[in-house]
Amino acid sequence: SMLPSTSLSCRSGNLEEGGFFMPYKESTKRHHYNKAYYAANREYLVGYSRTYYSTHREEKRTYRKTYRLAHLETLRLQDRRRKDKLKLDILARYGGPVCCCCGESHLEFLSIDHINGGGKAHRQQLNAIGSEFYRWLKKEGYPLGYRVLCMNCNFALGHGGYCPHGNLAKNSSK
Predict the structure, then answer these.
(1) CA separation for the pair 21, 173 (Å, rounded)
(2) Cα–Cα dist 154/157, whole Å
(3) Residues 158-169: tens digit of each pLDDT
(4) Region for 146 from its dihedrals, namely left if φ exceeds 0, alpha if ψ lies in -120 to 50, beta otherwise
(5) CB of 150 within 8 A of CB of 102?
(6) Helices (H) and strands (E) in the chain — how many of each?
(7) Helix (H, G, I), strand (E, B), or coil: what is residue 81?
(8) Entry pTM
């Protein structure tokens, strides 16, 4: 396989002992340097990573499992924060974190509604619920046909065809 480019190396060490130096200590310059190094040596690095992983598979699995068990609460908190941030982003793109029928603004109660119905079938087709559906919306560039509703309004509209607040009827694009 291709050897890494010597013009962009990030190994550290004494130059007189055959080592290379890290040219940037400033994080933004180092980031750009690392991107350039990866781009110049992508084929080699991908091959190296695959080979390393295949020869150390069990060791890596054991480490990941041990780490996960030791840091379970931290990882759950990070996951919750990531999902909340994504939900806020999605809600902001579809009119803000407020129900367009009743004005409910508690994040825990808000969801995305398919304006023309068919939400269950669509989510099943995508095999996506909750944050997976939000990721799909973001990946697709926030397509039209969705709105923010609270769970009460969304449930009433989906099962009864109207919202008791009187502001929405089925297939209403308000």
Answers:
(1) 61
(2) 5
(3) 888 888 887 776
(4) beta
(5) yes
(6) 7, 2
(7) helix
(8) 0.66
Distances (CA, A) of 27 to 24, 32, 34, 35, 41: 8, 9, 10, 12, 21
Q: End-to-end alpha-carbon separation of the chain, Å?
A: 59
Find the range with the poorest average confidence among 8-12, 32-36, 98-102: 8-12
| Exposed / middle / buried, residue 148 (Cβ in 10 Å: 0-12, 13-18, 19+) | buried
Number of Cβ atoms within 10 Å of the Cβ of 24? 14
Task: Give pLDDT tens digits for 65-104.
Answer: 999 999 999 999 999 999 999 999 999 999 999 999 899 9
Instruction: Answer whether residue 20 shows pLDDT above 60.
Output: no
Contact 6, 37 (CB under 8 A): no
CB 11 within 8 A of CB 20: yes
9: pLDDT strictly greater than 50:
no
Backbone angles phi, psi at 127, to 5 degrees: 55, 45
CB count within 10 Å of CB 122 equals 15
